Amino acid sequence: MTRPCIICVAITGSVPTRADNPAVPITVEEQIESTHEAFEAGAAICHAHVRNDDETPTSDPEKFARLKEGLEKHCPGMIVQFSTGGRSGAGKARGGMLPLRPDMASLTVGSNNFPTRVYENPPDLVDWLAGEMREYDIKPEIEAFDLSHIFQAAKMNREGKIPGHLYIQFVMGVKNAMPADRDVFDYYLHTVKRLVPDAEWCAAGIGRHQIELNEWCIAAGGHARTGLEDNVRLDRETLAPSNAALVRRTVELCEKYERPVASWREAREILGLRMPETVAA
Ligand SMILES: [Zn+2]
Which UniProt keywords apply (predicted)? Predict the structure, then answer.
């Protein structure tokens, strides 16, 4: 199989702290440095949340703006994807950074349980977030925590609420949500191919399931997500020393399955994203 695999690095998230792994980048400066190293290692997409200095999650557009500016300067061409999921319950504040026009943003189209709470995605908020993404020319990455989310995304695609080719990520292994189950993974994929055959897809596995989901995706022709947001360990005994170390692990799997790693340019072509003006052709 020779189709390039797009590697996304989820650098920070809203949950892991320095106490879990000192390599988790918290400040914007740390995030830029960590992403740069991951970009050099082969990541084409940076999925980012931002944090306050005390490590609590925030949706502060000013921090997102500084992060975007730094990434465009230090990782030219890399696809910048902002999370709109980091602060469930915060309503429209979750999309307050979308006017910054990142290349992509995460979009969850339904609700489910998280380890200690409900991940609230009511229909009016989902429609509003999708509308903001159309307004600012942002490609959503659909976060499918459940089979119903794939059906809902396909419906919104048909209705023009999420135009163009969908990019769907299966999320598995979140406590109290869908486990990393091979049969379900296969059925998710079957459903995507049936409902939206022109969609691109990938998966995120949480904790020890990260490497497992990377392997399933890479072997089946999808794209892959890694990074400290989802998993802070290389293996049971070893903390991941950096986001880049996790990216390198995913690159090795691509080599195992003879999948070339997509450059940022190839990733933008595959996902139908604009080429950045600031990068020389
Ligand atoms: Zn995230």
Answer: Metal-binding, Transferase, Zinc
Along the 281 residues of the chain, how does pLDDT read in single tens digits? 589 999 999 999 999 999 999 999 999 999 999 999 999 999 999 999 999 999 999 999 999 999 999 999 999 999 999 999 976 668 999 999 999 999 999 999 999 999 999 999 999 999 999 999 999 999 999 999 999 999 999 999 999 999 999 999 999 999 999 999 999 999 999 999 999 999 999 999 999 999 999 999 999 999 999 999 999 999 999 999 999 999 999 999 999 999 999 999 999 999 999 998 766 55
User: Taking the domains of the chain in order of start, what are their residue ranges?
Assistant: 7-273
Strands 167-172 and 50-51 turn out to be unpaired
Residue 55 alpha carbon to ligand 1 centre in Å = 15
Residues within 5 A (CB) of ion ligand 1: 83
**Residue 230 C-alpha to ligand 1 middle, in angstroms?**
8
Find out whether 243 and 210 touch, Cβ atoms under 8 Å: no
> How far does the centroid of ligand 1 lie from the alpha carbon of residue 281, in Å?
31
For the entire predicted model, the pTM comes to 0.97
Q: Which fold has domain 7-273?
A: TIM Barrel (3.20.20)
Q: How far is CA 197 from CA 134, 154, 189, 194, 264, in A?
A: 22, 10, 10, 6, 23
> How far, in Å, from the CA of 136 to the mean position of ligand 1?
20
